[in-house]
Each structure stands twice: as structure tokens, then as C-alpha cells.
Write a structure and sequence with these properties.
Elements: E1 5-7, H1 9-15, E2 19-22, H2 27-34, E3 38-44, H3 51-55, E4 59-70, E5 83-85, H4 90-99, H5 114-130, E6 134-139, E7 142-150, E8 153-159, H6 169-184, E9 188-191, H7 198-206, E10 210-222
Parallel strand pairs: 2-3, 8-9
Antiparallel strand pairs: 1-2, 3-10, 4-9, 4-10, 5-6, 6-7, 7-8
Helix pairs in contact: 1-5, 4-5, 6-7
Length: 229
């Protein structure tokens, strides 16, 4: 029998149950989720017929758009005093990661408690630190935030709560994108943003990014989570 479920051990360690992502959304693939205990992620195009998904217990959690930008279309916004470093306090970065991403799809999943969703981001950033894919933003002699990247993809951009609401988001994002263009050598960068975060989406669009498609994300829990674990 064809296997439609790909294990996601990076999520299992956070939710303490088996976790999977589906390789397709055929009837056979959906049926496998009913025969397997665990938590499942499925990404489908916005045009997909979702009736069968709902029948098999899947529920909508988010939409992910893909903004892309070519180097020659990038609009730089300069802010004096922003610098980057790979020499930083690990716990400072992890503390930012633990509270800066409250709107993600796992926070919007009613089956997953917030502390598990927070832990997922913290553990993901910890992995990225180990892989040297994090740069800390320095501003006013403090760690003001960080950004994470992989090849031509901007993975995460987090700002310390003390620096939010000060009109710095556009300049911080611009500095991160410019730095990634510089260190990666790619002529085009891309990222992934939920429409539920219009402020971030608008910042990237204002810097020259353009939307390049989207996917809808569905989750399913077959069984239960060990809440309190």
C-alpha cells in the first residue's frame, strides 16, 4: 500500500504525539489519517474542493502566501544604528522566539494549547541557532530581534517586544532582506506570510515583494494530546 504520510519528528517533540504531513489529498491519503493516530498537516491550493477534507475530520487553520522579491526591485529603507551579529546570547534569542509568534497556524489550532505552540517556535529557533542560520539584530546597544534564513528563503523575523510599536518594522525588515541578499548571493528571495498578519505582509509588499501564489493549511487530530506534558 502506498504511504501518504510523512513523519514530522520536529513537531512530535513539541506535541508529544506522532505527527505527519500528507503528500497529497486523495481519498486514499485522507483515509490513512483515519487509520493512524496523531496530528496531521495538509496543504492544498485555494481552488481545492475541501468537502472530502472536512468529511475526514480536517479543519482549516491558515493560509500561507508566498511573497517574492528580485534584487533589482528591492526598496531599501535605511535606519541608522542597525547592525547584525552572529555573536549573541542564545537565551535572549529564544526568549524572543517564545513570545513573538502568537499568530501562527499552531496557535490558531484549537486542539493545541498555546504553550505547545510557543514551544514549537522556541525549539525551531534553537535548531536554527545550532545550524548557524540566525543573525541577531543589534540596535541601541541591545539585541532588538533576529532573522532566520535558509538559502533563498526568509524563514522568520522576530522583534523584541521593547522595540515593537516604534515604527521600526519596515527598517528592520529592510535591513534583514538586504543582509540576506548580501550573504546568500541569490537574485531573488521569498518568504511565507499569513494574511492574518497584514502588518507584516504590507511591510514586505512596500519593500518590493510581490505575491506568488498561496496554499491553504488544514490540520487534523486523530486521538488526543497529552495536555500538561
Amino acid at each position: 500500500m502506498k504511504e501518504y504520510l510523512e513523519a514530522t519528528p520536529w513537531d512530535k517533540r513539541n506535541f508529544l504525539v506522532d505527527t505527519y504531513q500528507l503528500t497529497e489529498y486523495s481519498e486514499a491519503a485522507l483515509q490513512q489519517t483515519s487509520e493512524t493516530e496523531g496530528h496531521f498537516t495538509l496543504k492544498v491550493p485555494p481552488s481545492a474542493d475541501t468537502q472530502n477534507l472536512v468529511k475526514h475530520g480536517f479543519y482549516y487553520v491558515d493560509t500561507l502566501t508566498e511573497p517574492v522579491c528580485r534584487r533589482n526591485r528591492f526598496e531599501t529603507v535605511y535606519q541608522e544604528g542597525i547592525t547584525f551579529t552572529r555573536e549573541y546570547d542564545r537565551e535572549e534569542i529564544l526568549d524572543i522566539a517564545g513570545e513573538a509568534f502568537k499568530g501562527g497556524r499552531f496557535h490558531r489550532d484549537f486542539n493545541i494549547p498555546d504553550y505547545m505552540a510557543d514551544r514549537r517556535y522556541r525549539n525551531w529557533v534553537s535548531d536554527l541557532i545550532d545550524q548557524d542560520q540566525i543573525l541577531a539584530l543589534q540596535f541601541e546597544d541591545r539585541t532588538a530581534g533576529f532573522f532566520a534564513y535558509e538559502k533563498d528563503r526568509i524563514l522568520l523575523l522576530g522583534m523584541h517586544k521593547d522595540f515593537r510599536g516604534r515604527g521600526l518594522a519596515k527598517a528592520f525588515t529592510s535591513a534583514c532582506v538586504e543582509e540576506q541578499f548580501r550573504i546568500s548571493g541569490y537574485d531573488q528571495l521569498k518568504t511565507s506570510i499569513s494574511p492574518s498578519n497584514p502588518a507584516s505582509l504590507n511591510v514586505f509588499i512596500s519593500l518590493g515583494f510581490r505575491l506568488n501564489g498561496a496554499v491553504n493549511v488544514y490540520h487534523k487530530l486523530n486521538g488526543s494530546l497529552p495536555v500538561g506534558g
